[in-house]
Design brief:
single chain; 1172 residues; alpha+beta; Herpes Virus-1; Neuraminidase; four-stranded antiparallel sheet; 11 helices; 60 strands; 28% helix
Length: 1172
């Protein structure tokens, strides 16, 4: 820089000189009269009073509550003074002429030229005459400066040396603190690993016991079922013979005469057969062992003797506790499986509109866009498909599907020219069809199986003037106009239905219709008489938006697909809201209930079918191993036989008994030797000469009593056999109850043991934490004490050195103060190292508790070996097995909390998020203008408003933690953008203004440099400019950091729309560019390193990236808002995996202390925590 002309420099110096101290301004403050003075000068001038007069204009000045420090700073004067002091030319001139501008504060017209050694004060000539006349050793100021300079410099050097020893001590404390943290992390990991290994062993033991219990149950059940099958075969044979003879006897058919021999043989067979004896079963019992809980190990302090740690006490009430369960019970989550995706292959969908589930557990899905019905198991496995054929030339697009009483399917849909209702069998063969009015609106279908009526919804009219109705048809397509005098052609028009979409019939015969136009559910009885309606437009509990699919469960509860609220709702049979079944759907359309309470939902947006299922444990043989329902089998066979016999006998009557050999002749005779009825021609052709040929009437009379006696005897034998079957069924029921009780006891004992282990683990972790806290407190106390000494010594040396370099006469008066401070620390002993006592974890080699034994009551129990521990020492999770058993894939556990609202724990646009070292989550709840705080389990802790001033609150856009644990929040008010620092309780510490851009910002803190990094977007929508600004905590913008930062960082990298920012473990700065769909990576000085991403939805591509953070391994996690997912990349930007793919609008991400990932969802107004 060119030298400033001397005359101009002197003018600037004069303007920048305080009129009280006659020195360049230091910390200049502005009075209301606009005169500027040094803060220290004003403090001396004002004294302790709250008011004083301006030294220049004598105007009265009233100080603010904070005193002189509360007066506004003169930033322009500060900047000019600093620049003037830093100029080499001016500094050189100042060193050459130290006294040229030094004027006496008591006599401003006189310059300081003398120095009084006894008073150690610079003087002017008038000062000597007025107060120092006669003092010895008054010398020139130049000579005094020369004499004192070397002495002061030596004191400064000595102070710096002492300072270095103190700073070295502080560095040692930091290293010790780092080692303590590493030791605690390693110790806690060892405790958790030992806990996991013990739980794994317990789990293997529990599975072994349950397997023994299942094997015993299967063996006993097989005995019962084998015996029951044998007895049932006898019962069926005897029952059929008696029933056939009895029917023919009652109808008076001649065939009963020929049944006597067969009936005599059957009854005689069972008369001579011994009655079946009861089956001897051997049900097992579970005998829990009274085993103490394993200690896992001990946490001991290395340098002190270890006190014994008591065993965690058992639960006093005997209740079992699960892993991770505290005093409150954990609410069970609904398990689900989702299958399908968009496409035309088998198992893929294009708008799955309707669904139903058969009694055999088959799911039928109306795949509208693909013009077909697809069939799946209740586990989501594809079975088959068939096209929705209407005729040889046409296929229809199916809109809904329902089952009738015979298990066939009724499908409603449309072709280009007409609407249809078509009946298919389960294999897809068309059975019948009829035409419907061509309305160009979707329809729903249901079947009233008790009346065999087909109920179809219909919407007519234009978009703004629709009329809704339900039409009732017979299977042949004829419209039911009157059912018990109450049904009409157009059902419910009087209820003002607008857009009836789906329909169902509940267990009581009531008809339920979802009205998409009125956002409610209509309920009528089976005759169409209106009962009530519920719902109404809205997103609150019990409200609906465009309801679609509807069904009922076995308890009569009503399940509704709340289409536009993206959720599934449950109401009781009276329409009262019960709960949300699912709240993360996209466009739920149809719902259907499975045979065991499974809920099937089709999703038109996701093109998937999720099935919510109750937990069921299949036997080792799979589905084939499930018990047969022999009672149902027997009843079905009897009904079929009954129908066959009834049909045959109805076709024949005694009056029409004709000979099968001579149809024109009637049977009138009976041959006793041959036991057959005869006509006259039969007698002549084959029975002439046989003895005992009697009339048919006489034969009937003679044999009736004999056959009736045989029937009665057969019935008595049959009753004894049926009694045996009833006993077998009771025995089977007892076996089921015993197995259930036995398995529950095993699981209960397992849970109690795991709970004791959990309590022991928590005790060990608590001891570990207590030891860590005590040691850390020692270090931090000593560091705070030493830092106070460092600050005092450093301030004294810095002030003396600064004044010495600037050549100001003030340094002459610093010798005494500096001598005292340096002397104080010269004589003071150096700080001694802090003695910490870090604990260690010592695992105990404890065998796994056996839980108990499964033994057979009536037989001697063979010893059951303890579960084998893992040989590789690795900790296994619950559900992992050895051998050839399939190993379960561990899924990432997660918890989601929040929801749209203003109550505590609810959000309106949660944006930024950060996690403290104390495991507290801080969420920037934008629209609610507050920061909410939660635990890492999602429990609400507290909240505080984002106050900017007494009159204003800001909408927080992002939040970050600095090195001292305070929060930096960026946001905007109606008139300005601001950056505010709060403590963790919400007290505002400082703030500074930002350019008002009206666009969201991100914030991060470089804790190593204590720099606040804030993103900024300027320009209009079509021409934006992105930058990152680096500030000091006082709000001053960094113009040069090691000569590499710019005022507008990274503009050369072509950033367009920087959103969020973070600082990696190595100090690199990562910025998400929402506009360019990239992540930019720079080093700590702002030098561009690389970028990754690019617009798209493939692996490694991004669509409007937002939140960004790094994990402990340096991997980069990005909230990919446009693709509704969270992605992981390595530290070089190489794609690793999708962490979550079912988000709404993932906005911000943050890492917890133990690797937990926290994600805010701006669309769902929720926060999710992903563990592992």
């Amino acid at each position: 820089m060119a030298a400033v002309p001397t005359s101009f420099r002197e003018q600037i110096c004069e303007e920048l000189t305080c009129s009280i101290c006659l020195e360049l301004f230091t910390r200049p403050k502005v009075l209301p009269c606009q005169h500027t003075f040094c803060q220290d000068c004003l403090q001396d001038h004002a004294g302790r009073g709250g008011a004083f007069q301006c030294p220049n204009c004598r105007q009265q000045v009233r100080l603010p509550p904070q005193g002189v420090a509360g007066l506004p700073d003169n930033h322009l004067v500060t900047s000019l003074s600093e620049r003037l002091q830093n100029q080499d030319t001016i500094s050189g001139e100042t060193r050459e002429q130290p006294q040229s501008g030094n004027r006496c504060s008591f006599h401003p017209t006189e310059k300081l030229k003398l120095y009084c050694k006894p008073c150690q004060a610079p003087l002017c000539v008038d000062c000597v005459e007025e107060g120092h006349d006669g003092h010895p050793n008054i010398i020139s100021l130049t000579k005094a400066t020369q004499e004192k300079k070397s002495t002061v410099q030596a004191l400064i050097n000595e102070g710096r040396d002492i300072l270095e020893t103190y700073c070295s001590f502080i560095r040692g404390l930091r290293e010790k603190e780092k080692n303590l943290n590493e030791q605690k992390e390693q110790r806690d990991n060892s405790i958790i690993q030992a806990f996991n290994q013990m739980v794994q062993k317990l789990t293997e033991r529990k599975d072994f016991l349950l397997s023994d219990s299942q094997q015993n149950y299967s063996e006993n059940l097989e005995k019962i079922q084998t015996e029951r099958d044998n007895v049932l075969a006898d019962v069926n044979e005897l029952s059929a013979a008696c029933q056939l003879a009895e029917q023919e006897l009652q109808l008076g058919c001649v065939e009963f005469l020929s049944q006597q021999t067969a009936l005599t043989e059957v009854v005689g067979k069972y008369r001579e057969t011994a009655a079946p004896t009861p089956v001897q079963t051997q049900p097992a019992v579970f005998q829990p062992t009274d085993t103490p809980v394993p200690l896992l190990g001990h946490v001991t302090v290395q340098s002190l003797p270890s006190a014994p740690i008591p065993v965690a006490p058992a639960s006093s009430n005997g209740a079992a506790g699960g892993i991770g369960q505290d005093k409150g019970q954990v609410k069970p989550q609904c398990q689900s499986v989702t299958f399908g995706e968009y496409g035309s292959e088998s198992g893929q969908f294009k708008s799955p509109l309707g669904a139903t589930v058969s009694d055999e557990g088959e799911i039928f899905v109306a795949d509208q866009g693909n013009q077909r019905i697809q069939v799946f198991t209740l586990q989501g496995t594809f079975l088959r498909q068939f096209p929705t054929i209407v005729s040889d030339e046409h296929q229809m697009e199916p809109g809904d599907v329902a089952r009738d009483g015979e298990g066939n399917l009724w499908v409603v849909g449309w072709t280009e020219s007409a609407d249809f209702a078509v009946q298919y069998n389960k294999q897809g063969r068309v059975l019948r069809k009829f035409d419907l009015q061509n309305t160009e609106w979707y329809r729903g279908v249901a079947v009233d199986t008790r009346r065999n009526h087909i109920l179809i919804t219909q919407i007519t009219g234009g978009k703004d003037n629709t009329h809704g109705e339900v039409l009732v048809f017979r299977p042949d397509g004829s419209l039911v106009r009157s059912v018990e005098g109450k049904w009409g052609s157009f059902l419910w028009r009087r209820q003002e239905m607008k857009k009836p979409r789906y329909i169902t019939v509940d267990g009581g015969g009531n008809i339920l219709v979802s009205d998409n136009g009125n956002h409610c559910i209509h309920v009528c009885n089976e005759d169409g008489q209106f009962l009530f309606q519920f719902g109404g437009y809205g997103s609150g509990e019990g409200q609906l938006k465009g309801p679609r699919g509807i069904c009922t469960d076995r308890a009569g509860n009503i399940i509704v697909a709340d289409y536009r609220n993206n959720r599934i709702e449950m109401f009781d049979k009276k329409g009262r809201f019960l709960k949300h079944i699912a709240t993360d759907m996209m466009k739920p359309l149809a719902v259907a209930m499975g045979t065991q309470g499974q809920l099937l939902v089709t999703d038109d947006k996701k093109q998937t079918c999720p099935i919510c299922r109750q937990q069921a444990r299949p036997p080792p043989q799979g589905v084939e191993g499930l018990p047969d329902n022999h009672l149902v089998t027997s009843l079905c066979e009897r009904l079929q036989n009954q129908a066959t016999l009834s049909g045959e006998t109805r076709e024949q009557s005694q009056s029409g008994n004709r000979c099968s050999f001579h149809p024109s002749e009637k049977l009138k005779l009976y041959c006793k030797p041959c036991q057959v009825p005869l006509c006259v021609d039969c007698l002549e052709e084959g029975h002439d000469g046989h003895p005992n040929i009697i009339s048919l009437a006489k034969a009937t009379q003679e044999n009736k009593s004999t056959i009736q006696a045989l029937i009665n005897e057969g019935r008595d034998i049959l009753e004894s056999y049926c009694s045996v079957i009833r006993g077998l069924r009771e025995n089977e029921r007892g076996l089921n109850e015993q197995k259930e009780q036995r398995d529950n006891t095993i699981n209960q004992t397992y849970k109690e043991m795991v709970q004791k282990l959990t309590e022991r683990k928590d005790l060990l972790l608590s001891n570990s934490q207590q030891n860590h806290s005590e040691n850390l407190e020692k270090i931090q106390t000593e560091r705070d004490r030493v830092l106070a000494d460092v600050n005092e010594l450093s301030a004294a040396c810095d002030r003396a050195e600064q004044e010495l370099q600037q050549g100001l006469v003030k340094f002459l008066s610093q010798q005494t103060a500096l001598t005292e401070v340096v002397g104080k620390y010269r004589e003071k002993a150096a700080p001694t190292p802090v003695q910490t006592q870090p604990a260690v974890f010592q695992p105990t080699d404890t065998p796994v508790p056996v839980l108990g034994h499964v033994t057979v009551q009536s037989l001697a129990s063979a010893p059951i070996p303890a579960a084998i521990a893992s040989t590789n020492g690795a900790a296994g999770g619950i559900g992992q097995h050895h051998g050839n058993q399939r190993q379960m894939k561990l899924q990432s556990q997660s918890v989601t909390f929040g929801g749209d609202g203003s109550e505590s724990g609810q959000f309106k646009s949660p944006r930024g998020v950060t996690v403290s070292d104390e495991e507290e989550i801080f969420v920037a709840d934008c629209r609610n203008k507050r920061i909410q705080v939660f635990t890492l389990q999602g429990t609400f802790v507290r909240q505080f408003p984002t106050v900017v001033s007494d009159e204003h609150q800001m909408e927080p856009g992002d939040v970050a933690l600095d090195g001292e644990g305070n929060l930096w929040v960026v946001g905007d008010t109606e008139s300005a953008d601001v950056a505010v620092q709060y403590n963790k309780q919400g007290r505002m510490l400082r703030k500074f203004d930002l350019q008002n851009t009206g666009i969201y910002r991100g914030v991060a803190v470089d804790t190593r440099r204590n720099h606040i990094l804030i993103t900024q977007i300027t320009g209009d929508k079509n021409n934006t400019h992105g930058e990152v600004l680096a500030f000091r905590p006082d709000g001053s913008l960094l113009r040069a950091v090691e000569g590499k930062w710019w005022d507008f960082l990274l503009r050369r990298q072509g950033m367009k729309w920087p959103q969020y920012i973070t600082v990696g473990r190595e100090g690199n700065i990562l910025v998400s560019d929402y506009g360019n769909h990239y992540i930019h990576v720079c080093n700590e000085d702002g030098q561009f390193l690389f970028q990754f991403g690019g617009k798209g939805s493939g692996e490694g591509q991004l669509n409007d990236p937002c939140g960004i953070c790094t994990d402990r391994a340096g991997n980069i996690i990005v909230a990919d808002i446009g693709n509704k997912r969270v992605e992981m990349f390595d530290k070089t930007g190489k794609f690793l995996k999708h962490i979550a793919t079912d988000m709404g609008k993932p906005r911000a991400v943050a890492m917890g202390t133990q690797g937990q990932l926290v994600v805010t969802d701006d669309k769902k107004h929720t926060v999710s925590i992903f563990y592992n």
